[in-house]
Structures are given as C-alpha cells and as structure tokens.
Amino acid sequence: MSQISISHRSPYKLSRGHKMVRRTFLKKTIKLFFFVVSSISISVFFLFSYPWKIRKKELTFFYVTDEDMLPVKGVRQVSIEYSRYSRPMRTKAYIVNTGSELFALSPVCSHLGCLVNWNWPRKRFLCPCHGGQYDITGNVIKGPPPAPLSRLPMKIDKEKVYIGLRV
Amino acid sequence: MGEIFDWIDNRFGIRQPHRKFLHRDIPEGVNYSFCLGGAALVCFIMLFLSGIMLSIYYVPSETEAFNSIVRINNEVRLGWFIRSFHKWSSNLLIISIILHTIRVFIYKAYRSPRELNWVAGSLTLVIVFASGFTGYLLPWDQKAYWATEVGTSMAKTIPIIGKYLLYLVRGGEDVTGTTLIRFYAMHIIYLPSCLFILLWAHFHMVRKQGIKGGL
Amino acid sequence: MKNEEKEFYPDYLAEILLIVFIALEVTIVLALVYPQGIGRQINFSTPYRPLPEWYFLWLYQIVRYFPGRWAFVGTILLPVTAVLILIFIPYIDRGKRGRLKAILAGLILLLSFLIFTLLPALNP
To answer: Which of residues 49-108 of A touch B (CB under 8 A)?
Structure first.
C-alpha cells in the first residue's frame, strides 16, 4: 500500500517498469553494501590479528658443561639457562655419545611439541604426551611423531662445551 | 515490598511485557529433564559473574599472570573460593550442556521446525569448548603452558596453511605473552559475546516455536 | 506438571528457583570440598606430563593413533567432522529411516566421546 502512496507523491512520476528497475537496483546495492562492509571488516580483523612480524631467531651458543663431564657412552641431560625479555629461562638438552658419535639432541618432540625424557632402563627417549618413542640417535621407534628429534649444533672450545639454541 | 514494586511498575512498566515473555504454554509430557537447559543457563550466569569478579585481580601478562593467580588464591578475600567456583561451574556447564543435548535428541526436538535451534545449540557447545580451552592457559603454570603448546601445535599439522594458522593463533612462533593476551581476549570478550548472541537466538526460537512435548 | 491454572509467578518461578538452588549448591559444595590449587611455575627443564581438562581427553587420545603425515586426521579432520555431524543431525534425520540414521550418528558421537575419554582416564 505504501508503495502506491509514495509513487503519488514522487515528483518524478516514474512508470511502473522504471520503478521496478530502480527498486531492484536499490536492493542489489544494499546487498552489495553489506557484502563489501562485512568482507572488509573480516579481512581487516585477520590482517590486524596476524602477527605483524615473526621474530627472526638467532643462533646463540650457551655454555652447558665442561668437556670432561661429557658422557663416555650414553646420554646426559644438561640444562641451559638463557634470558628472554630479560627474564631468566631454563631449558634442557641431551648430549648423546653412542660410542662412535657425539652430538646434542633437542628434547622437543616433533609431534606436538612436548619435551621428551630419557628413559635409562629402556634406552630410549619417551614423550610423555602421546606416546612417541625415539631411540638413542633420535629416530622414531614408535608412536605418532613425524620426524626424528632435531640435532642441536654443539661445539667444544677450550674444554668447554657450548650448545647452540635459536632464541 | 509488593507496594513499592507496584509503584515502580506503574511508572516503569516492566511487568506486562515480561509476563508476556515469561508466560508460555507448557505442553503435555514435560518432566524435570527439561530443566537441563535451564541448569546450563544457570551455570553460564554463575560463570559470567565469577568471571567478572576474577577479572578485577587477574593480570594477563607473561610475568604477572602466575603471580596474580597466587595472589587471588592466597591473599584476596574469598579469592580461592571464587576461582574454584569458576572452575567447577565450567565443568558443570559442560556436563549439563551435553546432557541437555542428549535430552533434546531423545525427545526428537531437533526436528522441523526446530532444526535451526539445534544448530544454534551445537554452536553454543562448540564455543563453550573453545572457552574452556582458552581459559586453561590463563593461570600460566606448567599444566596451562603445555596444554596450550600441544593444543595450538595441532593447528600446525594441517597441510599448507597450518604454519600460518599457528602464527595467527599464537601471535608468533612460540607460546609467549602474546599468546596469553590473545587467549585472554578470546576468553573474556570474543567468545562470551558470541555466546550471548547465540543464547539470545536460542531462547528466542524456544519462545517462538514453543517447547516440544513428550515422546 | 501440566496445568492450565499454573501461573509463572509463583508456580513456575518456584520450580526454576529450585533448579537455580541445586546448581548453586552443587557448585558451592564442590568448590569448598575440592578447591583449585595453584599449579607449578613454567619450567622447561623438569619432566612434566601434561593432561588436558577432562572434556578434551578424547582429543588427547585420538591424536595418538595418527602417526607422521597423517597427524592432521586426528587433530583437525576427525574433530571437525564430529562437530559437523552434530550440527547437521536434523538434516541426517530426513526421509525413510531418518530417525534410525540420526540415532546411529548420535550414538557414534556419544560412544566415541565416552570411550576415548575413559581410555586415557582409566589407564594413564
């Protein structure tokens, strides 16, 4: 009803066909308006909340132990102290000597990021979260991890052992 | 009491519209299992109230979060109680929502014309789970940290986009203070707002479509 | 329960308040009897076995079953499928034997939730 009364008052005296074209145009414009505004706001939200820069991690070497404390054959857990945003942090790493090779292993499970523990009686690294098991060289024996434990760079300088961490 | 309320109501006029809102026809075959949804709403209100109380003392920062939890537990008057209350009502909320879903399923109340209400209810369940997950990080202790480390690492396992999704969720490469603030905002603003909208839609549809009666 | 003469105030309000009272009471008693403790401070050098909250135990359990490249099945695909099934239950219940299909879908969801919650809870 209201449409008729408006058309009477309209100064332009549009014909019925014209009016329909105009109204479909208006309807489409309104839909377009909502579509554009909502998609812009959603993209702005994601652009805004995505981290503006992923901090490049630098490889830094930390003193962990002396050379004569290295394992002769087996695994030794060392703790590494470093600072993040000037707060002291402490993490661990494993130094492994298989008899033929000496290297450092990162304890971060390749599955979902828990820290593995060395199980001495069973001679393997066990992940406490989802049952991943690694052998002494860090290869996956059992469980869901997709990749072996990553090796950390290690260097021995003047009888002191340093392990490189990306912090 | 009644006279004062009448005096206010004569001027304010709250009784008439609300009576219309609250009065509804109760169909045959309704029993106490129909209260589970109401129980969930009660739990949600308790969570909301205890949550806004906790937000006075909680500090969402990497250095202060744990200390503020210790302060709430040990120093704030009744702080330990409000914290336990928040925790337990979240557990009860999840239990009552699950039971409510089962009840609705058994009574076939998801059938036309109530499909949309079922959808709104399931989305509420999802958001409640998400609130539980984001709230878990806030104490910033061992349990919280590792649960979040594992939970957010799950995003990384998606092929192709996983890495970027992980950065988006954590606000960086590792779980840090940035992640904590993100989760805090989700827990206290984003998810509760979604819940309010969904619950409003849920109750609006219950009112419009009426309560589905017995089997 | 069914009664034409029942009014919102006081009949239904009394019943609603009964539910409110029970929910409040249960929560208060649980909070008093089992208060939330304070966890340990974050430490990367001590062994720690994280367990999720009980309502995420099912997820914790199913990610164990998908090794290597297939991890995303347990972490994303199955949970998302479960949520989609839950949301689309009214649309599963369509046509002949719709209810049967819906009951099947609902039972699968409920039973897998229960089984995968109980498995890690019973033998950690």
So the answer is: 49-51, 54-55, 57, 84-85, 87
